[in-house]
Design brief:
This protein has helices spanning 17-22, 27-48, 53-70, 88-91, 93-96, 139-155; strands at 112-116, 119-124, 161-170, 180-190, 193-202, 205-216. It is an alpha+beta fold and 218 residues long. The chain has a six-stranded antiparallel beta sheet with strand order 1-2-4-5-6-3, with helices on one face. The longest helix has 22 residues, at 27-48. Bound molecules: ligand 3IX. The site of ligand 3IX has 19 residues, from helix 6, strand 3 and strand 6. Belongs to the THEM4/THEM5 thioesterase family. It is found in: Cell projection, Ruffle membrane; Cytoplasm; Membrane.
Length: 218
């Protein structure tokens, strides 16, 4: 039933998060990650703290200045990731800027992934910025986590593709500010269709389940 996963087929295009965490991250990428981490904290404070208006104005003015400063530089080009001068971290850019697992993207929770045999495992914690019902994670954010998790699992086959259909069953509300763990695996492959399944837990409690059909490129 389980198709073997083979990360090596895609390793020429990007590093797995586990590989990347073993590589020393220094210089520009370390600073990108640090900035993203601080921005995540700013987002959390903005959504929970009862900050006085004057401090909000001051923070907005400071960030407006920083936004103008950061925006003054040329945009990175995709080909920088495959240039002869590309570092392993440059090649890892697609992953490091991911909206779900990217350590250099402040909107990622981030979801941390590890490969355990044929199962891809993830850990994350939703902050208040991901709130849907009071105290609970937004269903769309949970779906996004599953898209990434199952999408990554199917990428480890030699036939990666795009999400065709993603079905989520929300079993119980998923709590905020709680260590969550999730898992996904490729269930079967039929022609270009890769069928994946995944689950999300808070402790022993099953919060949500997902089925995904991914379509390998022709
Ligand atoms: C170029 C792809 C490579 C991409 C990945 C590459 C590398 C990986 C890199 C990094 C990976 C790291 C992490 C990944 C993490 C997250 C991944 C996120 C993934 C996404 O977030 S991705 C964005 C959302 N995604 C879309 O934006 C898709 C838009 N859409 C389309 O691009 C097309 O719509 C497509 C391609 C889905 C199908 O188009 P198509 O022309 O190839 O399909 P076609 O008609 O030939 O059908 C062939 C057979 O599939 C069945 N079929 C058709 N459509 C189906 C569907 N939707 N669901 C279930 N089954 C379907 C038919 O019923 C037929 O079945 P049968 O053979 O049995 O008759």
């Amino acid at each position: 039933m389980n198709e073997p996963l083979d990360g090596s087929a895609l390793s020429q295009y990007f590093l797995l998060p586990t590989d990347a965490s073993e590589a020393p991250v220094t210089g520009i990428w370390a600073e990108r990650r640090r900035l993203a981490s601080i921005m995540r904290t700013v987002i959390e404070h903005l959504t929970v703290a009862d900050t006085p208006e004057s401090e909000l104005r001051e923070a907005a003015d400071t960030l407006q200045h920083l936004a103008a400063q950061l925006g003054a530089h040329p945009r990175r080009r995709k080909r920088d990731d495959i240039a002869d001068t590309a570092t392993p971290m440059d090649k890892h850019a697609l992953i490091d800027f991911s909206p779900l697992i990217g350590l250099s993207n402040p909107i990622s929770p981030p979801l941390e992934l590890t490969l355990d045999g044929n199962t891809l495992r993830g850990r994350l914690r939703f902050g208040t910025a991901y709130e849907g019902p009071p105290g609970c994670a937004h269903g769309g954010c949970i779906a996004a986590v599953f898209d990434e998790l199952l999408g990554y699992a199917q990428s480890l086959t030699s036939l990666p593709g795009m999400t065709g259909t993603l079905t989520i069953r929300y079993r119980v509300p998923t709590p905020l500010h709680t260590e969550l763990h999730c898992e996904a695996r490729v269930q079967r492959i039929s022609g270009r269709k890769i069928f994946c399944v995944g689950r999300l837990y808070a402790g022993e409690t099953l919060c949500a389940e997902a089925d995904g059909v991914f379509l390998a490129s022709r």
